[in-house]
């Protein structure tokens, strides 16, 4: 099984090292990890960002499944590129898995406007409050199109590098594929 | 053409009114707008959040296209639920359109860590710097699977309610469909 390894990991200073560690964990379980930075970027006339888009899309099309690192990134939600990729893989009918290294509910990660009694943010926008770790579309996509979101029991010390949740996803995908 | 109307609009205090305005603009151009709050939520045993997920997914499957409101929401990127839906529609091969009411580049919306010379954030994570308004996967998905992201020439006074970019998407989808 080929697994697309989505996440803000590509923005780490040691992104290549993280890709290598994730591929090694996949290999331990007999899976092939496809990390975005591993792909061949075409050398055509398109802007670099468009070439990266095409290369990542080609990797997703090759993959049978996705493991999305949904750890909150620059706000209460997951990295937006990762969320796009999760949606894309769900839309193409691939198997979806994901983990976040922050166990708190979405509600608890959004600064609230006290006047609203805590139900709304400073812009007067309602804060989703279903006890889920991120927007309901993301969390239930995992429930419906793969395996439920993996969360740590307590906060981890290095949320952008901890791979326990990732390994749990790999293990569960392997078990799912054997059913 | 049925168009799924994705966006953080559903979190506005006057969400129903916004849905009505968007559907009316669609109707002016001969399109049918499908707004998430219009759908019938099943009354089965599932939790409310899962029923909303299923209802939204059913609306997306009915739709021929999506117009995603990608105005930054609780951070430098678009609302994560909206981004998931954009990815899902791209994955199912539907026509994709989107607008943001904030014209600035992603790079300019992320607080930087001065020591890095402005290339990295406070967590040491690289800040994407391609001059795009959001993550490259989102912006190029629109280029490749529909019409390019619509941005205002200058900041608008009420980014969560301004519908000029939305109307531009409706008009361009109509023209695209006639090609």
- Radius of gyration based on Cα positions of chain A: 17 Å
- Overall shape of chain A: it is globular
Oligomer: homodimer
| Alpha-carbon distance between the two ends of chain A | 14 Å
Greatest interface and its residue counts? A-B, 55 and 55 residues
Q: How many strand segments of chain A? A: 4
| CATH hierarchy class name of chain A | Alpha Beta
The strands making up the biggest β-sheet of chain A line up spatially as: 2-1-3-4
What value does the average pLDDT of chain A take? Answer: 94
Number of helices of chain A: 6
Give the uncertain stretches of chain A in residue-range form.
none
Q: What's the CATH topology name of chain A?
A: Rossmann fold
CATH architecture of chain A: 3-Layer(aba) Sandwich
Number of domains of chain A: 1
Strand content of chain A: 5-15%
- The helix fraction of chain A, in percent, is 25-40%
Outline the biggest β-sheet of chain A.
4 strands, parallel
Explained architecture:
- The structure is a homodimer of 179-residue chains.
- Chain A is α/β, with parallel strands linked by helices.
- Chain A has one domain: Rossmann fold, CATH 3.40.50.
- Chain A is 39% helix and 10% strand.
- Chain A has helices at residues 15-28, 48-62, 80-91, 106-109, 136-145, 164-178, and strands at 2-6, 32-34, 65-69, 95-99.
- The mean pLDDT of chain A is 94.
């Amino acid at each position: 099984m080929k697994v697309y390894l989505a996440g803000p990991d590509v923005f780490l200073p040691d992104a290549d090292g993280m890709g290598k560690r994730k591929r090694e964990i996949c290999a331990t379980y007999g899976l092939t990890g496809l990390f975005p930075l591993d792909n061949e970027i075409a050398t055509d006339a398109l802007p670099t960002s468009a070439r990266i888009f095409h290369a990542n899309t080609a990797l997703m099309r090759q993959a049978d499944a996705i493991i999305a690192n949904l750890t909150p990134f620059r706000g209460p939600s997951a990295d937006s590129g990762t969320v796009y990729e999760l949606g894309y893989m769900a839309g193409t009918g691939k198997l979806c898995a994901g983990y976040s290294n922050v166990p708190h509910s979405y509600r608890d990660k959004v600064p609230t406007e006290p006047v609203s009694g805590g139900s709304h943010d400073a812009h007067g926008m309602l804060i989703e409050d279903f006890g889920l770790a991120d927007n309901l579309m993301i969390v239930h996509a995992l429930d419906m199109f793969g395996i439920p979101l993996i969360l740590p029991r307590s906060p981890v010390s290095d949320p952008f590098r901890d791979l326990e949740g990732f390994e749990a996803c790999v293990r569960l995908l392997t078990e799912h594929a054997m059913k």
